[in-house]
Amino acid sequence: MLKDGAVWALGAMSGTSLDGVDAAMLHTDGLRILDFGTSGYRAYSEGERAVLRAALGRWPGAGLEPALEVIQSAHVELLSQFPGAQLVGFHGQTLAHEPRGRGTHQLGDGAALAQALGKPVVWDFRSADVSLGGEGAPLAPFFHWACARHIGATKPLCFLNLGGVGNLTWVDPRAETPEAEGALLAFDTGPANAPINDLVAERLGLDCDLDGRLARKGRVEDGALELFLDEGFFRKMPPKSLDRDDFSLMLDLVRELSDADAAATMTGMAAAAVMQGMEHCPKPPARVLVTGGGRKNPVMMRMLAAGLDCPVEPVEKAGLDGDMLEAQAFAYLAVRVARGLPTSAPGTTGVAAPVGGGQISRPESVQG
Ligand SMILES: Nc1ncnc2c1ncn2[C@@H]1O[C@H](COP(=O)(O)OP(=O)(O)OP(=O)(O)O)[C@@H](O)[C@H]1O
Ligand SMILES: CC(=O)N[C@H]1[C@@H]2OC[C@@H](O2)[C@@H](O)[C@@H]1O[C@H](C)C(=O)O
């Protein structure tokens, strides 16, 4: 276990949108952010993405070797470019997530990665939380607390991650630790970019609706939006989390619409899901800081700004890096695991008591 001192940790995240691996260095003692370091990105090739896509929904077992090979080799390639890292936080690729059912599955072999990099690797961050009754997600909220303190926030604020799935964290920066009662409330809001990506891939062979160019030309179809908001998920109190494809029915709701109207409606659904989620905040936030790829979609940002009564801004407005926040989060969580500190709490995953997820693998030469 690490002593109290700060370390340079390297976090790596392969998100639900399957675009690639993000990696970022963070100097932290597991409580405070002392400094941000360099970062990098390794995109998946078309072929690699197809292999990963084919593995979505799968649980550990035979047949995953090609997908595992993609994850391991992409991570080794990217993470070897950070020789200064003292510890690695390796999220892996979520293939399936059913916290009240079969569990949660992040593909990746932390022991093999530790061996390949010659560094200790913290991995399997979500299982312990799930086995103790938590949702296993979202896990970035403890880092959001550290970010809120780092930027000098004095009033409650929200972090909104618009990735493949959306997740919202309400944080009270006056709390002394992230696990303190009332410090955090976090949950997945609903689908964000994943269904939009799926729509434009299916209809137009595109990766995403870049800059909302398609949605901008369309109009939100209210009937489809209402049917979407009828989903039981939105009435559920937090904590709650989602699998990437839990809302694949969305594609059916827009099937009859033109490409532009379908894109506008799906963008509207992602924004409306966030607005529903905001109603769960214990107190109105002073601002909503948006991270993840969705913050680059001006149509989505405009819809959010129109629907919420506080400023909605990309995290860059507060000096943070919205492309790397999740990778930094897993660097932060890795240090917390190594120091024996919790990484989730009742307010973030619904787990009964604060819990430290993640296991540590060390390369054989430095074992013990
Ligand atoms: N300029 C842009 N215009 C529109 N959408 C964009 C733009 N840039 C990124 N995106 C969307 O953001 C997605 C990537 O977001 P991000 O990297 O936050 O997802 P992720 O980390 O894989 O997901 P998650 O947080 O759910 O694990 C892209 O797949 C795309 O849909
Ligand atoms: C099971 C899983 O991998 N969930 C992801 C996903 O992507 C966004 C949202 O759904 C969030 O719950 C989580 O990721 C972020 C990094 C988190 O744990 O905070």
UniProtKB/TrEMBL annotation:
Q: Summarize where ATP binds, as residue positions.
A: 15-22
- A GO MF label: ATP binding
- Renumbered to this chain, the Low complexity biased-composition regions fall at 345-354
Which GO biological process annotations does it have? 1,6-anhydro-N-acetyl-beta-muramic acid catabolic process; amino sugar metabolic process; peptidoglycan turnover
> Which InterPro entries did the record assign?
Anhydro_N_Ac-Mur_kinase, ATPase_NBD
Which reaction(s) does its UniProt entry say it catalyses?
1,6-anhydro-N-acetyl-beta-muramate + ATP + H2O = N-acetyl-D-muramate 6-phosphate + ADP + H(+)
Keyword terms of this UniProt record:
ATP-binding, Carbohydrate metabolism, Kinase, Nucleotide-binding, Transferase
Residues of the region (Disordered) are 344-368
Q: What is this enzyme's EC?
A: 2.7.1.170
Q: Where does the UniProt annotation place the signal sequence? A: none
Its biological purpose: Catalyzes the specific phosphorylation of 1,6-anhydro-N-acetylmuramic acid (anhMurNAc) with the simultaneous cleavage of the 1,6-anhydro ring, generating MurNAc-6-P. Is required for the utilization of anhMurNAc either imported from the medium or derived from its own cell wall murein, and thus plays a role in cell wall recycling.
Q: Which family does it belong to?
A: Belongs to the anhydro-N-acetylmuramic acid kinase family.
What is the protein name given in its UniProt record? Anhydro-N-acetylmuramic acid kinase
Species source reads: Mameliella alba
